[in-house]
Structures
1.
Amino acid sequence: MTNWTNRNSYGCAHVTARADWLESIEEWLSSQLAVGRTRETLRTRWYQISRFSRIVDRPIDQVDADAVIDYFLRSDMDFDAKRNARGCVKVFYEWAVAHDRATHNPIDDVPVIPVKPKGGLICPEHAINEGLKSADEDAVLAVMFGAWMGLRRLEMVQINADTDIEDNPEDMRLLIHGKGIKERVLPVPGELARAIRRRGGDWLFPGRFGGHACAEYVGTRIKEATAYPSHSLRRRFATFAYYRTGCNILLVSQLLGHSNVATTMRYVGVNTDLMRDAVEATTRADVMEHRQKAAMDAFMPTRTMQKLAFGG
């Protein structure tokens, strides 16, 4: 059995589960691994359910809906984090009930957490430009991946030059290892392709002690270079791609690796240039309508005189 409690996520510290939950959590995660969940996903789930167990601070079979609601009330998580945590607890208790660790799923009596209708922070162009001028080569590469291809931090560090890059003089394509077990292949912009070719070694972002760097490493590089979080670059890519492709939300969803276009729409922000054009267009329409009315008013007396002259 995988000992999840002795592991961490890419070298980043996690909380510890309540002692009487440990065995059940490890069995649940091992069962999830057996049906194809990736270790990266399961480490996230381990963090979520372990934190939950410590905060509710009661045995698995004594957690009720009130305890879950109190957990969310005491938490400083945003809407997305709460929805993800709710999903994690729900799946864990489905397993717990099926394996006689609990008699009911407390999530069944907890209201669904709504999707917050927001696009999120979008990294502005001046910050992108500052990031591209950074003296930190890792930061520049990460900014390119985020702003020009919309990659997540974890997707960036998992790129292996030997296995994930298809390169020829005319075109470079990249195999992206997305969340869960989803993969996608994306074309690489020319300038970014040249930057990739200049990198040596197997991992584009090598770790200090072998393997690849942790996701937080490139997140820190991006934040220091642009003063914006890494996900704001992904939202920037989504917004530009959406409007530049004629609002083709399905295509943008595929580029981002989303399984649901509703998720993609939450990434798309407002294009201020299009807003300005829309406002200007309505102004021009008003002017045109006024001019047409004035022309008709000027024409009407002539039409009236013609009717009188010809007895119309």
2.
Amino acid sequence: FEALERTFTEEWAAGAGQGYDDPAPIFVVGQPRTGTTLVERILAGHSRIEAAGELQQFGLCVRRVARAPLDAPLARAAAAAGADLRALGEAYIRAATPMRIGKPRF
């Protein structure tokens, strides 16, 4: 967490560049046992949102697009910070599509 906090600062966000503009994904982020599953279920109660569960695709796409090492958290965070955000977004949407049932948001 310290590596993430030191790497993904407000300054990084201001200069990170353009991402991939797709309104479909809704990210619910949190530690285990903090209510994230409840939040997902509440959101999925909406007719235009589907629950996709705890997808692993985003982390896998970060590693692939950023060519981030698996065994070094500091190096992985630095590699991820330098990733092409548009390519990352495109890769994530492609990887998550097979897990979806077709509602506009997930």
